[in-house]
Specification:
Number of strands: 0
Shape: elongated
Distance between the termini: 38 Å
Largest sheet: none
Structural class: mainly alpha
Low-confidence stretches: 5-10
Strand content: under 5%
Radius of gyration: 23 Å
Mean pLDDT: 76
Length: about 80
């Protein structure tokens, strides 16, 4: 299967962390205190996101542990239950 070219992608990604090049350049040219503040703000956002993901992961692991081991046994085996 051929690898799709990157030309089909949108010029602006839809993910939440997207920053236009001008905004990035402005931040890198900002005074050191402003850069530190921006990085601390981003760190807080990432820590919040991490906590949310860890809660979801713990919940999923709990659900998986509660499921019976053989719940899917025989499913899709192709023998038609014979």
């Amino acid at each position: 299967m051929p690898i799709p070219s990157l030309s089909h992608r949108c010029a602006r990604p839809s993910h939440a962390n997207y920053r236009p090049k001008k905004e990035k350049k402005k931040l890198t040219e900002a005074p050191l205190d402003d850069r530190v503040d921006a990085l601390e703000t981003r760190r807080g956002q990432l820590l919040t996101q991490r906590a949310q993901l860890e809660r979801k992961l713990a919940e999923l692991r709990r659900k998986m542990a509660d499921e019976p081991e053989g719940r899917d046994a025989g499913a899709g085996s192709g023998d038609g239950g014979k």
